[in-house]
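Write out the bound-state structure for aspartic acid.
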Amino acid sequence: MTIALIAHGGAGRWRPGSDDDATEGLRAAVEAGRAILAGGGRALDAVCATVVMLEDNPIFNAGTGAVLNFDGFCELDACVMESREARVGAVCGLQRVRNPVLVARKVMEETDHVMLTGDGAQRFARVMGFPDHDPVTPERRADWFDKRNRIDDVLGEHALKMRRFLKDHPEYAGGTVGAAAVDGQGVLAAATSTGGVTLKMVGRVGDSPFPGAGNYASPHVAASATGTGEFVLRSLATRAISERVEQGASLADAVAAVLGRMGEDFDADVGLIAVGRLGTPVALHRTKDMPHAFFSGAGAVVSRMRA
Ligand code: ASP
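---
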């Protein structure tokens, strides 16, 4: 089997001047996943290692450096899924943990549940030995003050303007991370982690923790979505890719069709990455940027800002 892995750093408009930080961060994270796959390791371990590196990199909107919600703290969502037996674990609205993706994995491995939320997720994390960690960085805090000051009047007048505001300023979203891989045994896995969207309402959960929406692994496809999660939730985008491949479409055509449909239905500011059973990575997005990196087989890691 051909091993392969692809990772993204969020669909949106990347902050000017930081392109190289994003592509280099992704390259390093994909190299970490690649080392695991090349050594005969599992796709699940590879996507987790990749996403942990991205969560620990404060320029991405996941783990340390995640964006703040309207009230000024981080609520983190993450999901891991493996094609074998459709094993899946997720957390949403999780606070004060360094690597939400690893907590999601523990939900999968140590409980009979698929998803834990809020206080329950945090209590579980502590029981599993994840120590208290404040993911808020000074940069994100300053950013939050700035944006919060500018958006206050808009929000006060009419909540719908919040959606328009985010649409006009897609750089306020983006930075979510995700990875999809296939290992030497032909097992596929995907992992996705995010702080959600800036200034989201407390309690808002996006697409990232939901299997079939923001994150999915089947025997055909592993995929991760990014961008405004409400559109991804309404399209069940990653599951839709898998269904098209099951029906005979190539992976590239399936991803393009699902993204095209989200464009027609919602003019959605989203991006998708996927890898197929045969080890072909695909990345497509409707936003200006979506930093991503990938490798397949013995090929070198390619890292770039746009597909
Ligand atoms: N999809 C994520 C969410 O809506 C955000 C993102 O990918 O930028 O929570």
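---
The two ends are 25 Å apart (CA to CA).
The mean pLDDT is 93.
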